[in-house]
């Protein structure tokens, strides 16, 4: 039975953690990306389906390719971050279930059921996107998740020959520069969006 | 600039945390539910939209109503857990944006765009569902998320007069009984589902 984490940890994960628009000049290594994955992959997904596929853009060329798919204020954020990440999903995730969920024939639950495939991939790759954000924060890093981009452009640029791969959202990653955050938007009290029966 | 959390915290959040099928005989208070919300509400959502709506079933009557909507092995899990939670989403979330995202007219981005409303509600309420799981773990609690239920039945039972509310997934909550967990399903190495460019 676990105890609550201490206040410093709760702050780092939730209360003082913020979405960053710019980062300090401090590199993020591939080892750190692997450490994020090794935490985030432990988070639960339905039937252990793990539908997320992550594309980590660390080179200038890759970040330029991604920035060209984004709109508004997002291209300079993508270009200047140490790493910019595509959180994608594989609509053929169920091909991996004989290996990832070996004790039953879970692949057959999905074969031919496109609506279930789409909903399961979208829901669970979104869960994994949140685990990515939380794992990065747990490791002392910061993120800047974004929805302002053209999915079709990202898919054409990064997955031209893989029609089963679809982008969910994108994010920057690095050591956040506190000068680049906006004022915290309001967060509602429990009673507004929760009911207890 | 933050440092990585210590190993005990990373274990509690990710590495030794598990999905539980049953719970110890230890109550969870409404104060604890509010503490979960006060952490999870800080996690980022697109335009601070916070589309999730949580229904916390703490009474036997509420758990029985939810269990009647679930299939397979799920009804006894729902009934025996201290709390069973519906993570729902509000397809009218954008009505709250003048208040939650006050510096621009974000409501107008969504008005009349049903596809964007649906995708934004589903993606971001899923993110919030993951924040719920991580916040519960951070507070020393355990969860058992589930997709095996009839969405139509849950919506008819809990939101009969609120057609904008749709269920995303459900979960049990409590102090996990280690005798009720399954063997950990395999988790893939970085190279399998990640690419670095």
Automatic annotation (TrEMBL), chains A, B:
Enzyme class: oxidoreductase
Pfam families the UniProt entry points to: Nitroreductase
CDD domains found in the cross-reference section: RutE-like (cd02148)
Alphabetical keyword list: Flavoprotein, FMN, NADP, Oxidoreductase
InterPro entries per record: Nitroreductase, Nitroreductase-like, Nitroreductase_HadB/RutE, RutE-like
GO molecular function terms listed in the Swiss-Prot or TrEMBL record: 3-hydroxypropionate dehydrogenase (NADP+) activity
Domain Nitroreductase: 18-158
EC number of this enzyme: 1.1.1.298
UniProt-listed NCBIfam families: PRK05365.1 (NF003768)
Protein name per its UniProtKB record: Malonic semialdehyde reductase
